[in-house]
Structure prediction request, 248 residues.
Amino acid sequence: MSSAYLLVSHGSRDRRPEVAMHQLAKLVCNKLPNNYNPSSSEHLVGIAALEMSPQPLHEQIQQFAKSAFGGHKPSQNENRLKIVPLFLLPGVHVMTDIPAEVVLAQQAIGQDIMIELQPHLGSHLNLEKLLAKQISTIKAEAWILLAHGSRRPGSKETVEAMAANLSAVAAYWAGPPSLESRVKELVAAGYSEIAILPYFLFAGGITDAIAASIEELKLQFSAVNFQLAEPLGASAELAELIWDLTDR
Prediction:
């Protein structure tokens, strides 16, 4: 039995997340067992985007399946394509959109290749350790964990729990409570050193906008020292979590 792995991100008009996804795919490729042929292993880990792509996701899945397994007809269920959603929140994309695209892809491919949808990245328990590692490098009196937010009911619970475990408060870029409202609360409580941890995978348009908003907050609260941590980024540690999810 052969397995291939497709890392699915949201997609962006900004080039930086795509570059980071390619880097991450290479790091995950390094996790392949030694019995994989090195010359072909790079074709067994690919990337795809749910949005901002010329092709819909189900067509990207089909195309990757062909490149990973070739045109030969294996015995039924011999080849497996594992889809790993690189999303941090269990929002509409993770719970509805991606599963629907996987169904379409499976219908088109047939039973020669079995597509298995793995848990999303944000579900991994050790993700919190990566965030704690980032927090440990910056000295601050108070931390804000800033996530994107989701319109799906219950998706905030993950962020709230993560923030509580990190001794931080949660804020959302696309919904309440906002970054500014959280800053006002912390300033009113007497904090003068506030750090913001973006709960995002990679640098891009949103993290640029977050940095710009923090510059505005510095003008509004001149007595407060603000610090902005980096998003998760492509790293060997993150690749390890992704590889672990493929065994679920």
Observations:
- The longest strand covers residues 2-9.
